[in-house]
Write a structure and sequence with these properties.
By secondary structure, the chain is α/β, with parallel strands linked by helices. It is about 40% helix and about 15% strand. The mean pLDDT is about 95. It binds zinc ion.
Amino acid sequence: MKNDDKNIRIAIEMAKESKKKGNLPFGCILVNKDGEVVLKGENTINTDNDCLAHAEINLIRKASKIYNYSYLNSCSIYTSDEPCPMCTSAIYWSGIGKLVYGLSKKRYYEIVGRDNPNWVFEMPTRELLEKGGRKLEVIGPLLEEEVSILHLD
Ligand SMILES: [Zn+2]
């Protein structure tokens, strides 16, 4: 649990990096079974002009070029925020064995609002993953207050 907090805080740092560069404040990291951070991902939708460049997608694209499925299956992804349905699916297809997230999507939308329907896509990660054939361990929400700060302004 202590390590989970530590890793979520690294994902928060990645989210801050994204924000500094003019992107959305979302970040993630990939941690192997020995607890080592092997990859980091940040949101790049603005700087890459790519609406799909969510932090998790960016990380998984890199990861799947470097590592095989069974290695990824022994890894965990830590995300600052509960992943959207696209990223949840990408995590599923990647083979990554475990997901740990910070802020829940429910709390996220309570903070940023639901006024723009184009930005709302609420599907709880666990509900979506239940439809999959393989089972992933999902832990979260964690450190919601710390992640919330990213979305307050
Ligand atoms: Zn996403």
